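so my prof wants the structure for this chain in the tokens format not the other one, which i didnt know existed until like an hour ago. anyway here's the sequence
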Amino acid sequence: MSNEYTILRVRVTVKDADTLRALLRDTRPDVGGRVGRDEDGSLSFDAYVSPEKARALPREGVTVRTLDGDAAATGRARQAEVGEGDRFAPADAVPQGLALKVQDTKYA
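here's what i got, hopefully its the right format
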């Protein structure tokens, strides 16, 4: 796991809408997407929470399953895949607009 803070991605399943409202009101997890209804009538959603909050979520009518043990590390790995600059700009593109270039200002 990361030496920084750890964030888990968990799937939370609740038995009904009243249980969902109470859980969201009491714990205020960072919900990642919309709530879906399962075939059995239960409701489920993904949330991003600390390990401590993940341990506090389960209660009567609520089950929690960990999907990603370190979502923060997964996010950092995805960010590393992204290149720098504007890949759609031509190689010889010159910025245009009303701003001054950094070397043209007295703070350069």
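also thought this was worth mentioning. The first strand starts at residue 8 and ends at 14.
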